[in-house]
Amino acid sequence: MQFGFLQRWTPQLLSILRIVTAGTFLTHGTMKLLGWPAPFPYPLNGLTTTAAVLEIVGGLLLIIGLFSRPVAFILSGLMAFAYFMAHAPQGFFPVLNGGEAAMLFCFVFLFIAAAGPGVWSVDAALGKDK
């Protein structure tokens, strides 16, 4: 079975990928700073507080698609840093070291930085992403 019929929906699907990923990412920050949707199980320090602020601000900006490429690039770096600081020392395999989410966020954000936000974004509406 061929899935060429989906190709015409690529710009919209890219927007959906960005929105869903950013919404999920945002909840990591709200959990740390606001205790929602559940309390963060570890004590906050300077690194986790900084990460939480980036997760909330970056998540909100990506949901609406504003400054998408630079924000996605910064968040990709944040997740690479988180993976190597918190997860990689616990073993090689992400499925075993708890780093699957960080690794996936890193590469989805890197893709968004390269591909852009899609057609459903403030950047596209303003003509800032061609």
UniProtKB/TrEMBL annotation:
Q: Which InterPro entries match?
A: DoxX, DoxX-like_oxidoreductase
User: From what superkingdom does this record's organism come?
Assistant: Bacteria
Compartments reported by the entry? Cell membrane
- Membrane-spanning regions, if any? 12-30, 42-64, 71-89, 101-122
Spell out the Pfam families in the cross-references: DoxX (PF07681)
Give the UniProt keywords, A-Z: Cell membrane, Membrane, Transmembrane, Transmembrane helix
Q: How does it sit in the membrane?
A: Multi-pass membrane protein
> Does Cell wall biogenesis/degradation count among this protein's keywords?
no
Q: Which family does it belong to?
A: Belongs to the DoxX family.
Against PANTHER family, the record matches this protein to: BLL4328 PROTEIN (PTHR33452:SF4), OXIDOREDUCTASE CATD-RELATED (PTHR33452)
- How is this protein named in the record? DoxX family protein
- Per the UniProt record, the source organism is Mesorhizobium retamae
What lineage, starting at the top, does this entry show?
Bacteria, Pseudomonadati, Pseudomonadota, Alphaproteobacteria, Hyphomicrobiales
